């Protein structure tokens, strides 16, 4: 490095130790441990390109060229006044860098700023730059050649040199930032899934004193599992003019969303997102959780949907009123107001046809203790529930429909008693269908009884929906709780009622009344 004029002898009061890092090709990279220097360095927060933005910019391209600057950091000189800070100690003495070394906390930001300044007229249109990697892309060979010539001219005019061993031109597939990109979309990098593909067949289990068996059906299931884990769906490129959808779903412990577009008549996934719920969010009612995931997903995919019409697909029917909420208050009001800046339409879709976002929100859930039907005194007084159901005309209609459509899976009979399938993992798998004349008794038992505690609407509704079903359950619970005399008598409203509006009379003389908006506090 001394012969290459990269370093020089130093008399600096600064000193950092040397670290050698092995490269992929087996050679060694000379680095200096600048951690103590970085702690006292004023940070440069110039942004690096976002990975999703870089991938989206490649939409519509079919040819790619990649170029790598040769020792890119060493092509930037360090100011003479600051060279002493880069000093490092070796057995041969103290040296300092004349060019920008690896390891400085501000080196990536400095390099990215230089490349952005060099290629600012072409970045995101003809090429993109991620540190010392430059990518040129185009849809046709002629256009690609023209763009490539422009980029190379800029690099030459700046006096930069390329590493010919890391330059590849006119490729139909590009490996970038852990992904493989081609004209069809974004694929997972085979190198990232190689560990799963080569995972060995299990030979034992972790538990002691348990017999281990591995049969043909186990091997088939194991092979299929590895195949599913390594063959993710190909992500498409976002096309601004195509119809955009966001599928959302919430479970008891997480939320998930999928951004898709209708391309060539088919739904093409663009991006996936999911996260766990915070402890406070886990206490939300089911409706609030579904509202939460809608707001979170729209904010997550804001760069794609802001300023464009799009549709949110949810399996929670009551969310369809979210954008037209009347007399909003509290948390729902804040969420409804946040949606006003978007051109969004909320559409209901059955949970069985909503598996993409649903699977993202589902995690292995621990067993949750819940009260059984035997804990409800009202049900213990009913000796023949089958006979009670037969008194309801709605039950008769459902049974006739089950005879006509034997493939229906929504309703099922056990020992002559009708149940409805539940798609919420927090409740029972099959919900008992409550006939019309018994519904008030259920409401009284789960709201008015001493053990029920006169809970609010959300908790009462959630308590009932996990075990029972009847048409209009949501409306029935809301009406019952809102008309409960005991709740009205004992529970005070959470806020004072708004006062009456009063007109502001005109002033008799100028400046008799002055309106002032306060702004501040300002720090000098």
UniProtKB/TrEMBL annotation:
Membrane-spanning parts: none
MF term (GO), any: RNA-directed DNA polymerase activity
Leader sequence residues: none
Keywords: Endonuclease, Hydrolase, Nuclease, Nucleotidyltransferase, Protease, RNA-directed DNA polymerase, Transferase
Domain Reverse transcriptase: 2-181
Entry's EC annotation: 2.7.7.49
Entry protein name: RNA-directed DNA polymerase
Gene Ontology terms describing biological process: proteolysis
Enzyme class: transferase
């Amino acid at each position: 490095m001394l012969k290459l004029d990269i370093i020089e002898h130093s008399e600096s009061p600064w000193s950092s130790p040397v670290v050698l890092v092995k490269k992929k090709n087996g050679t060694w990279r000379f680095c200096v441990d600048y951690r103590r220097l970085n702690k006292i360095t004023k940070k440069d927060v110039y942004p690096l390109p976002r990975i999703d933005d870089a991938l989206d910019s490649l939409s519509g391209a079919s040819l790619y060229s990649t170029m790598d600057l040769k020792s890119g950091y060493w092509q930037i000189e360090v100011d003479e006044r600051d060279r002493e800070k880069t000093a490092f100690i070796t057995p041969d003495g103290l040296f300092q860098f004349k060019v920008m070394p690896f390891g400085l906390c501000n080196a990536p930001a400095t390099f990215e700023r230089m490349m952005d300044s060099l290629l600012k007229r072409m970045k995101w249109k003809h090429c993109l730059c991620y540190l010392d990697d430059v990518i040129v892309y185009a849809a046709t060979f002629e256009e690609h050649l023209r763009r490539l010539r422009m980029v190379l001219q800029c690099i030459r005019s700046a006096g930069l040199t390329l590493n010919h061993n890391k330059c590849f031109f006119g490729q139909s597939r590009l490996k970038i930032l852990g992904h493989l990109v081609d004209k069809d979309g974004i694929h997972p990098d085979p190198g990232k899934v190689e560990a799963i593909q080569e995972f060995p067949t299990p030979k034992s289990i972790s538990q002691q004193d348990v017999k281990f068996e591995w049969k043909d059906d186990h091997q088939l299931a194991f092979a299929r599992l590895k195949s599913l884990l390594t063959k993710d769906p190909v992500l498409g490129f976002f096309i601004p003019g195509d119809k955009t959808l966001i599928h959302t779903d919430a479970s008891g412990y997480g939320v998930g969303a999928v951004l898709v577009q209708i391309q060539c008549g088919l739904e093409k996934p663009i991006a996936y997102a999911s996260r766990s719920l915070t402890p406070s969010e886990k206490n939300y009612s089911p409706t609030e959780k579904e509202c939460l995931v809608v707001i979170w997903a729209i904010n997550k995919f804001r760069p794609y949907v802001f300023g464009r019409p799009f549709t949110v697909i949810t399996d929670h029917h009551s969310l369809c009123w979210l954008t037209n909420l009347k007399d909003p208050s509290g948390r729902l009001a804040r969420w409804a107001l946040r949606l006003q800046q978007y051109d969004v339409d909320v559409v209901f879709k059955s949970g069985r046809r909503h598996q993409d976002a649903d699977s993202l929100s589902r995690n292995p859930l621990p067993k949750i203790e819940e009260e059984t039907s035997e804990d409800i005194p009202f049900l213990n007084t009913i000796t023949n529930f089958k006979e009670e159901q037969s008194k309801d005309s709605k039950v008769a209609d459902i049974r006739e429909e089950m005879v006509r459509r034997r493939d229906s899976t929504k309703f099922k009979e056990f020992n002559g008693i009708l149940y409805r399938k539940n798609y919420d993992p927090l409740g029972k798998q099959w919900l008992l269908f409550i006939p019309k004349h018994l519904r008030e008794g259920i409401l009284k038992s789960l709201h008015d009884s001493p053990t029920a505690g006169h809970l609010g609407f959300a908790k009462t509704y959630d308590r009932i929906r996990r075990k029972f079903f009847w048409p209009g359950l949501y409306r029935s619970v809301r009406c019952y709780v809102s008309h409960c005399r005991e709740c009205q008598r004992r529970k005070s409203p959470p806020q004072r009622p708004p006062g009456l509006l009063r007109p502001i009379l005109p002033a008799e003389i100028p400046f008799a009344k002055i309106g002032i908006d306060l702004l501040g506090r300002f720090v000098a």
